[in-house]
Amino acid sequence: MTLAVAAALGGMASSAVAGGFAIGTQSGSGTGNAFAGGAAAADDASVAWYNPAAMTLIPGKQVAGALHVLKPSFKFQNTASTAAVGTGEGGDSGDWAFVPNAFFTMDINPNMRFGLALNAPFGLATEYDNGWRGQLKALKSEIISVNINPSVAYKVSDTVSIGAGFSVQKLEATLTKAANAAGTNIAELKADDVGYGFNLGLMIQAMPDTRIGVSYRSSIKYDLEGSVTFSATPAGNGGVRADLKVPDSASFSLFHIFNPKWELMGDITWTGWSTLQRFDAIRTTGAGEGTIVDSETFNWKDTWRYSIGANYKMSPQTKFRFGLAFDETPTNDVDRTPRLPDQDRTWIAFGLQYKPSKSGILDVGYAHEFFKDASVNNSQGAAGTLVGTFKNKADIFSIQYSHSF
Q1: Fewer CB within 10 Å, N- or C-terminus of the chain?
Q2: For residues 165 and 104, what is the distance between their CA atoms, to the nearest angstrom?
């Protein structure tokens, strides 16, 4: 199962549906709650990702597999561009994406659990029509990640559990743009690396009906290596390297059983996107070795995400989920790029859980993201300036099956 899911993850294009280029959809059960209470809910084996300490609340063995179907939309509307290069708005640079993930938890002894998460924490896929007015800034941008995260949890007492894990994460990046005003020479940069990180978790049963979950996930540094190629001037081809650091994050979650029918939850998550200020690709071979062949200025800031959710138990087999979230963008109006025209977004989510058997749980969820308009004002050198606004939105469909043994 591990090899199959890892292979599937490696072949899937991903689209960012959380702040920056993070993928916020990491469990099918969480989608219907807009991922509120993720570090405290402990609904299924996906807690191996959200908070390893919460694995002590999942008895026996459980495996969960999810598929998320994402449809982001990024449409540029020109307002005052002075670019003497290309025509048109570039079309809708968002497209369908399919993101699978899987989770496993099991007992080691009465006080200790083991878990494994296989997922894609980061991703980006935008692609504009060739010849559009912003082709000197961006044509295709793609980031694909594959993460393997084993973890353990220990029950310190009847009310406190702790957990820890480590991640092995591969990141691949592909960036293309026009290298001349006519758009006849396309530059493509491809690079990848494997990085390592860790995560920590704490679960507190504060009261019989109330749980508190706290989790932390470290940043991961990549020393990307690859190549740059030019379609019309192969003499400029050569090796490149670039440094990239994905952010650390911390979550504080609450889960409360209000009465036999209703469950309430909330979450506050901080993400350290200020690690991403610039992206410089430096030549390692060929003409101009040691010089910058491509550069992106981000100047991103740290962000906060706030979410609330509720579950209604219609029967022992059926549960309805509801969620609302606000997700800040790390970008700004000065440095925002068409490679990722991100803005603040609001989530509205719904879901349904059905238990077809004593050991099986089926979850389906849907979320829609409403974006603020995202303005861009990017210099394209002597070719002028790209000035306009992006109208964005995103839809998320999730399905997950969990089985206990």
Answers
A1: C
A2: 13
Q: List 116's β-bridge partners, or say none.
A: 104, 150
* Cβ contact 401:65 at 8 Å: yes
What distance in Å separates the CA atoms of residue 101 and residue 96, rounded to the nearest whole number? 17
Q: Taking a C-beta distance cutoff of 8 angstroms, is the pair 82, 387 a contact?
A: yes
Sign of the alpha-carbon torsion through 342, 24, 126, 222: positive
Residue ranges and CATH numbers for the domains of the chain are 2-404 (2.40.160.60)
CB atoms within 10 A of CB 1: 11
Residues pairing with 118 in the sheet: 102, 148
- Report d(CA 396, CA 388) in Å as an integer: 27
Read off the pLDDT of residues 62-108 as tens digits, 9 standing for 90 and up: 999 999 999 999 999 999 998 778 889 999 999 999 999 999 999 99
CA distance 89 to 255: 45
Is this prediction's pTM over 0.85? Answer: yes
CA distance 301 to 311: 33
**Residue in 191, 198, 93, 195 with CA at minimum distance from that of residue 135:** 93
